[in-house]
Specification:
The complex is a heterodimer of chains A (598) and B (109).
Chain A (H helix, E strand, L loop, with lengths): L13 E2 L6 H4 L4 E2 L3 E6 L5 H14 L5 E5 L4 H8 L14 E5 L7 E2 L6 H14 L3 E5 L1 H5 L5 H18 L2 E7 L11 H6 L2 E10 L2 E11 L8 E7 L2 E4 L14 E2 L4 H6 L4 E2 L3 E6 L5 H14 L4 E6 L3 H9 L6 H6 L2 E6 L6 H15 L3 E5 L10 H17 L3 E7 L6 H6 L8 E10 L2 E11 L9 E6 L2 E5 L2 E3 L2 E3 L1 H79 L10 H17 L2 H6 L2
Parallel strand pairs in A: 3-8, 3-9, 4-5, 4-7, 7-8, 15-19, 15-20, 16-17, 16-18, 18-19
Antiparallel strand pairs in A: 1-2, 9-10, 10-11, 11-12, 13-14, 20-21, 21-22, 22-23, 24-25
Helix pairs in contact in A: 12-13, 15-16
Chain B lengths: L5 E4 L9 E7 L4 H17 L4 E7 L4 H7 L6 E6 L4 E4 L5 H8 L3 H4 L1
Classes of the chains: A alpha/beta (598), B alpha+beta (109).
Chain lengths: 598, 109
């Protein structure tokens, strides 16, 4: 076969791999029409990476590919890959071709051989499929048969020339020695290819941790360092970190589920903020989280509830006892509950699974209960980093999060040193017990709440079938009263109030009585007055009548005596008196009749 | 099935079994050329009873190679008599070729 001179493309063009996180690390994927080398020990994920890339090319980019399997039977690889949600069986043979390049164990070797024939076959297949991708999986298995380093190198160069000639984007996987400190047996291959990705698997405190590192990428920038990877339901995912903090700062308030806490926080949590709830076992962290989740669902927001070491169903049952009903929201699909085990899974894997769930469920609110559980396995430092990454990831997606963390003992600082996530959480609520007067009562404190005027008071958290409630605490003599003591204090206070009310009522009655008494007396006096007046009027009329009749008598006498000199003068005083009487009688209300009487 | 480079040589002696083989080569690749030469020499020397050799150029007949599961070239398949055998390489090691084909170097000699 004649090798054409390789013509490099002017601009480095990249093809996405569809491996979540890897495209970010590699700033866009693998180099187009170039060869990438994937190396690593057994069980590190080389084959999955290559296959996932191929499947992605076939389904997302409509580019067909060829998978050359040197190590495993093609059927086996196909069957293994079918467990991932790639829809591999749906991809027709026209888009994905598996070439079984596994030599039967009964094959006898006699002398030198080469790959010319295989490449000729593949070239024909490539033309037939118009393939853009090719994967050589486990090429070292075949090359080792040559038992000749020079021969191995010759065949690798043959492949390289063939790839360049055929304009194929290629992935070659090869086993590296388990010990990463040793020089690689295919060192020259790393110089030959344009991109080298190393996979590594090691045990960290008995938990296997898989990592990936891009060690070389010609003509391209890439994220340096090792990055954890894991296998989710959709295949391999790499935990790629964001570089910059770009969180939107929302001023919208989101209720955390009950009024008492909202008002303590100055109206609720900021949308997109993270709230850390720390507390000893049994301080009802989960209840607060459940309340938050319920209120989010009631607002119609998609919510994700991640719990560790406790099943979602059990959490729902337990929360029902305090009046939190999550079941209907789970049924409606608004709430998704995911329960992870922490005894066997490493923290990275949890992070990746949660990240996958975030993409899948697209929640706007989420709960992690408790985050501290992931620190139980693996290195604690790693768990701290995971916690950080998780919160950043959640904040990046503007998800309002409610994260609980278990603290042993009463000192909230213990948490700060253990996972060190309190610094990046926006709000920190600490739950504790106060033991006094033979009782253990729950107390809630807001340690911090960024950008919010929050209450500095310790409140008592009370649980009932109607949901959690916050009660003001009494401080008496410098001591905070809770539980029965508070109840007693409250009872005392209300008794005093009742007494005061009774006293007041009594006093008012007394006053009312006095008022009524006076009014009655006034009425009696009035009656008396009227009687007096009536008497006076009666008396006046009598005297007038007497006066008039005496005047008439005189006139009569004068008339009879025919004396007319005094006739005009005589009635005048009588008229004047009558006018005076009428004024008086008007007041009495009965004098008018009397005035006309004469 | 097209056989462009069919080279069947049937021996005159009719009583013994005829070895049927198929050699897959890749054009004029050095190992393929060597394999043809080596195999022909072995056939001439050890397969007096007769043999049937088909040489397939996979560059021209990739589909045949694919169907036969040929991975590397040169590759020799013994079709009959049973048991069948597969060999890879330029067949420079005569001993292993004879052993794989079920021929005994001493008796044949």
């Amino acid at each position: 076969m004649t090798a054409k001179k390789r013509v490099p493309t002017r601009f480095l063009s990249k093809v996405t791999t569809g491996v979540r996180g890897f495209d970010q690390l590699s700033r866009g994927g693998l180099p187009r029409n170039r060869t990438s080398l994937v190396m690593g020990g057994p069980g590190t994920g080389k084959t999955v990476f290559a296959l996932q890339t191929l499947v992605n090319a076939a389904s997302a980019q409509k580019q067909s590919g060829i998978f050359v399997a040197f190590e495993e039977a093609a059927e086996e690889i196909f069957a293994n890959a079918a467990t991932f949600g790639w829809g591999l069986p749906a991809l027709s043979r026209k888009t994905l071709f598996f070439f079984d390049a596994q030599l039967s164990p009964s094959v006898v070797q006699s002398g030198d051989f080469d790959l010319t024939g295989m490449l000729a076959v593949l070239e024909a297949k490539k033309r037939e499929l118009r393939a853009g991708w090719i994967v050589f999986d486990g090429i070292d298995v075949l090359l080792r048969l040559l038992q000749n380093p020079a021969g191995e190198m010759r065949e690798i160069y043959r492949i390289r020339d063939w790839l360049a000639h055929n304009d194929l984007t290629a992935i070659i996987t090869a086993k590296a020695d388990g010990d990463s400190s040793k020089p690689l047996s295919y060192g020259f291959m790393q110089f030959m290819v344009d991109c080298v990705i190393r996979f590594d698997r090691r045990l960290e405190q008995e938990i296997p941790v898989r990592r990936l590192e891009i060690t070389k990428y010609r003509g391209s920038d890439f994220a340096a360092g090792e990055f954890p990877l894991s296998f989710g339901p959709n295949g391999m995912e790499v935990a790629a970190p964001g570089t910059e903090i770009r969180h939107e700062a929302s001023t919208e308030r989101v209720s955390c589920g009950f009024e008492g806490l909202d008002s303590m926080l100055g109206g609720g949590l900021f949308r997109g903020s993270s709230t850390l709830v720390t507390g000893a076992p049994g301080t009802s962290k989960t209840t607060l989280a459940g309340q938050f989740a319920q209120s989010a669902c009631l607002r119609g927001e998609r919510t994700l509830f991640v719990s560790f070491d406790e099943g979602g169903e059990r959490i729902r049952r337990n929360l029902t006892s305090v009046g939190i009903h999550l079941e209907p929201h789970v049924r409606s699909g608004l709430l998704h509950m995911y329960s992870g085990r922490t005894d066997v899974t490493n923290p990275e894997e949890h992070l990746i699974r949660i990240a996958a769930l975030l993409l899948e469920h697209k929640p706007s609110c989420m709960v992690i209960d408790p985050l501290s559980a992931i620190g139980r396995t693996g290195a604690l430092s790693a768990a701290g980093a995971i916690g950080n990454r998780l919160i950043y990831k959640v904040q990046d997606q503007r998800i309002t999060s409610f994260i609980t963390s278990l603290v042993d003992g009463e000192d909230p600082q213990a948490e700060a040193t253990a996972l060190q996530i309190s610094t990046i959480a926006d709000t920190w609520i600490h739950l504790s017990y106060l033991v006094r007067g033979g009782e253990r009562n729950r107390a809630l404190t807001i340690v911090k709440s960024r950008g919010t005027q929050h209450s500095n008071q310790v409140r008592e958290l009370m649980l009932s079938a109607a949901g959690p409630k916050l009660a003001d605490v009494y401080s008496s003599g410098g001591e905070v009263l809770m539980g029965t003591l508070r109840w007693e204090k409250e009872a005392e206070e209300s008794a005093r109030k009742l007494q005061r009310r009774a006293e007041f009522t009594h006093k008012r009655r007394e006053l009312e009585f006095a008022e009524a008494d006076i009014a009655a007396r006034i009425a009696a006096l009035q009656l008396d007055l009227e009687r007096q007046r009536a008497e006076l009027a009666l008396y006046t009329r009598d005297s007038e009548a007497q006066h008039v009749s005496s005047g008439e008598l005189k006139n009569e006498v004068r008339r009879l005596r025919s004396a007319d000199a005094a006739t005009t003068a005589a009635p005048t005083p009588g008229k004047r008196r009558a006018g005076h009487v009428s004024a008086n009688s008007r007041k009495n209300g009965g004098g008018q009749e009397r005035r006309h009487d004469p | 099935m097209t056989r462009k480079r069919k080279k069947a040589v049937t021996a005159e002696v009719p009583i013994t079994t005829v070895v049927v083989m198929c050699l897959y080569v890749a054009g004029k690749a050095p190992n393929s050329v060597k394999a043809i030469a080596n195999l022909k020499a072995i056939c001439r020397r050890y397969m007096k009873d007769g043999y049937k050799l088909e040489i397939v150029d996979v560059c021209e007949h990739p589909r045949r190679a694919l169907a036969a599961g040929v991975v590397v070239t040169p590759s020799l398949a013994k079709v009959s008599p049973a048991p069948s055998a597969n060999l890879i390489g330029n067949l420079s090691d005569t001993g292993s070729v004879l052993a794989a084909l079920g021929l005994n170097a001493e008796t044949m000699q």
